[in-house]
């Protein structure tokens, strides 16, 4: 006989479900190993079988609640299984219980292990990253395909940077897409200066579950872009739940920055920046210098958003203006449209319409 401990339904956290979230860099999960992540306030084990296939489980043993990731991935009966470190219960990559070592022979014969499981999550591994699907219904198949980047799927990851914002994911997303803060938060000689501020106009259009700052020549007042010469074009795409991709195209070559804004929980958000490039000239620039630039840039956003939380603690009335805050407005409208689609079953209708936005930056 087994008994299930009572659980409390989580409060509305503002997180979107039925979408793919960034889970881990593929090379960080070795064959026969597992790591722990917290995503959307849920404990997640991301593991890899001994044969190299990635999988994800709810990182809680249903027996006594210990994190399964603190155990080990073992090979039993010809398959990889996660072994709980507390009592040795073992779970298959699909979440089903494979063994309870403490049972005697007659107890094991009477126990239906198929009724014992921990949740499994669909995973997809591409571009060197592992994505995890969080469905509202744990049994349902993914309703959308995994994220697609406009680069070869076997593209090599050149650099990864990670940071933590102590805020809800909404504030992290809006903070990163906000164009008006750049001359104030990111004022440095190699990016922008106070004297370089001028009016800009950018064309936008809808993409799948998001929007794009359509291909254009990079801003002349960004010193870094000028290093790549005149034949350059950039595009910035945003897609739910919080995936931002910036493409810098140099003829047939590219420098691509993928940013995953992933809610850890209601008060913490993980920012993961993954860089790809096939531009020979990038080999001349020391990676340590590129890394320092990215960390400085993201760190300035982090400090600003973290400081913002002190004011938000007083629950002030906030405002969004045209045109600089239209991307933030689109984000909220996209979230509402997605929730309506998943709740009512109506087709998803992207609220973003083609537009030219103007601001000073």
From TrEMBL:
One annotated GO molecular function: dioxygenase activity
Keyword Oxidoreductase: yes
Regions crossing the membrane: none
Highest taxon in the source lineage: Bacteria
Pfam families xrefs: Rieske, VanA_C
Record has Metal-binding as a keyword: yes
UniProt keyword terms in alphabetical order: 2Fe-2S, Dioxygenase, Iron, Iron-sulfur, Metal-binding, Oxidoreductase
Entry EC no(s): 1.14.13.-
Ranges where the Rieske domain occurs: 21-132
Descriptive protein name: Aromatic ring-hydroxylating dioxygenase subunit alpha
Upper lineage: Bacteria, Pseudomonadati, Pseudomonadota, Alphaproteobacteria, Maricaulales
């Amino acid at each position: 006989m087994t008994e299930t401990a009572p659980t409390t339904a989580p409060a509305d956290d503002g997180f979107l479900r039925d979408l793919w979230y960034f889970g881990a860099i593929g090379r960080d999960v070795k064959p026969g190993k597992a790591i722990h992540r917290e995503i959307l306030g849920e404990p997640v084990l991301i593991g890899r079988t001994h044969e190299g296939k990635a999988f994800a489980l709810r990182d809680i043993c249903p027996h006594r609640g210990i994190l399964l990731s603190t155990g080990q991935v073992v090979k039993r009966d010809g398959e990889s299984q996660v072994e709980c470190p507390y009592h040795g219960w073992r779970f298959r990559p699909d979440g089903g219980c494979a063994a309870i070592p403490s049972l005697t022979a007659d107890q094991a014969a009477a126990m239906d292990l198929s009724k014992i499981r921990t949740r499994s999550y669909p995973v997809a591994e591409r571009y060197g990253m592992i994505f995890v699907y969080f469905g509202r219904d744990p049994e349902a198949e993914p309703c959308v395909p995994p994220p697609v980047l406009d680069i070869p799927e076997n593209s090599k990851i050149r650099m990864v940077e990670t940071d933590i914002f102590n805020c809800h994911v909404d504030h992290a997303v809006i903070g990163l897409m906000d164009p008006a803060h750049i001359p104030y938060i990111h004022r440095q000689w190699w990016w922008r200066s106070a004297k370089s501020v001028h009016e800009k106009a950018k064309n936008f259009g809808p993409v799948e579950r998001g929007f794009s700052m359509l291909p254009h020549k990079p801003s002349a007042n960004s010193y870094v872009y000028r290093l790549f010469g005149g034949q350059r074009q950039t595009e910035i795409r945003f897609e739910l739940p919080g995936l931002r991709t910036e493409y810098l195209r140099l003829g047939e070559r590219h420098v691509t920055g993928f940013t995953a804004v992933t809610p850890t929980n209601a008060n913490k958000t993980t920012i993961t920046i993954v860089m790809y490039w096939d531009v020979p000239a990038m080999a001349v620039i020391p990676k340590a210098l590129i890394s320092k630039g990215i960390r400085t840039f993201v760190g300035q956003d982090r400090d600003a958003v973290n400081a913002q939380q002190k004011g938000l603690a007083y629950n002030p009335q906030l405002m969004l203006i045209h045109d600089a805050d239209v991307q933030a407005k689109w984000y909220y409208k996209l979230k509402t449209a997605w929730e309506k689609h998943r709740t009512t079953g109506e087709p998803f209708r992207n609220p973003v319409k083609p537009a030219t936005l103007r601001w000073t930056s």
